[in-house]
Specification:
The protein is an all-alpha fold. It has one domain: Up-down Bundle (Rhopdopsin 7-helix transmembrane proteins), CATH 1.20.1070.10. The protein starts with 5 loop residues before the first helix and ends in a 17-residue tail after the last helix.
């Protein structure tokens, strides 16, 4: 494969951010840049959406961390994973005001912050799906095999979570190495990858396909298998209490896929086009850029949704939160007995889940 032009190298490599004032040059055209199509998405509206997601995520995930941390004695293995998931969403939410300014104007925060917020986005995504994969394995072993060996592992679940964080950071290293803040031709400052002109196509394949394979496709296949068998087993046993708990987990997984799967599918198509597996034209480039822009917005909104799922579906989460308010005298016990419904479901490990 031949080398790309310099402008082409400044394009997104694997977690591409699309900006309306910065587009790639079609390598098949002599020197004529593709004219961007109007996406009909007001950049200020997108910035406002990011700020709203920031506020919702900050409040919601802080409550999740509070509730799970407060109930240390009743914390299940699944709760530990969900706690780490909330922390990941919370850390990513802190970057959204910066992305909002970027959407509305240009990147004004320098290379260090460019690398930092980009890495936080990557770590949030990879840790999210890896944690959900671990939850699926935990539920699979506990419900399908119903073995104590699958549930007596609270003492080392912390090491599993630590490994997930380390692996997520490792998958995000390309972003840390190559993302910079710089001025491209005829544009304001952007936060993009710069990898040079040598072996560009090969780097695109390595730096995008490998993280997606190990950080998205494999965990997704694990989740589909584990939850497929687990749900089948639950319906056969007809345990209504466990089925209610699984509804929360499945809702979390489904929302994650709805938010992030379109973005990753678009990235796969974009990679194929940038490596010339699919012929690139200005029309296709504009379509992919538009799809990346829209699906990225959808992916960013995911950070605030899980607390809403716990609040509206997870009865135990509501009860645990109300008990904290009663303990601190913010509401009376009569209110708790009136609005807090009892739930007898306990995790297979014998520890009552505070989230499910």
């Amino acid at each position: 494969m031949g080398d790309w032009t310099f402008d082409g190298d400044l394009s997104d490599l694997f977690k591409g951010y699309n900006y309306t004032d910065y587009n790639t040059v079609n390598p098949s055209a002599a020197a004529a840049p593709c004219k961007p199509d109007s996406l009909n998405i007001n950049k200020y509206v997108v910035a406002v959406v990011y700020c709203l997601v920031f506020l919702l995520s900050l409040v919601g995930n802080s409550l999740v961390v509070l509730v799970i941390s407060y109930n240390r004695q009743n914390r299940s293995v699944t709760d530990v994973y969900l706690l780490n998931l909330a922390i990941a969403d919370l850390l990513f939410a802190l970057t959204l005001p910066l992305w909002a300014v970027y959407r509305a104007h240009e990147w004004i925060f320098g290379t260090f912050m460019c690398k930092a917020v980009s890495v936080l986005q990557e770590v949030n995504f990879y840790s999210g799906i890896l944690l959900l994969a671990c939850i699926s394995i935990d539920r699979f072993l506990a419900i399908v095999y119903a073995t104590r060996a699958a549930t007596e592992k609270r003492h080392w679940v912390k090491f599993v979570c630590l490994g997930i964080w380390v692996f997520s950071i490792a998958l995000s290293l390309p972003i840390l190495l190559f993302r910079e803040a710089f001025w491209p031709p005829h544009s304001g400052m952007v936060c993009y990858e710069r990898i040079g002109e040598e072996n560009t196509a090969k780097w695109r394949v390595v730096l995008r396909i490998l993280p997606q394979t190990f950080g998205f496709i494999l965990p997704l296949l694990i989740m589909l298998f584990c939850y497929g068998v687990t749900v089948k087993t639950l319906f056969q046993t007809k345990n209504s209490q466990k089925q209610k708990a699984m509804k929360v987990i499945l809702a979390v997984v489904l929302v994650f896929l709805v938010c992030w799967l379109p973005y990753n599918i678009t990235l796969v198509v974009d990679t194929m086009m940038r490596t010339r597996a699919i012929a690139e034209t200005c029309h296709r480039r504009n379509q992919i850029d538009a799809a990346l822009s829209v699906t990225q917005i959808l992916g960013f909104t995911h950070s605030c949704i899980n607390p809403l799922i716990y609040a509206f579906i997870g009865q135990k989460f509501r009860n645990s939160f109300l008990k904290i308010l009663v303990y601190h005298g913010l509401i009376n016990k009569e209110f708790l007995s009136r609005y807090g419904r009892g739930s007898s479901f306990a995790s297979t490990s014998g520890n009552t889940s505070t989230t499910l």
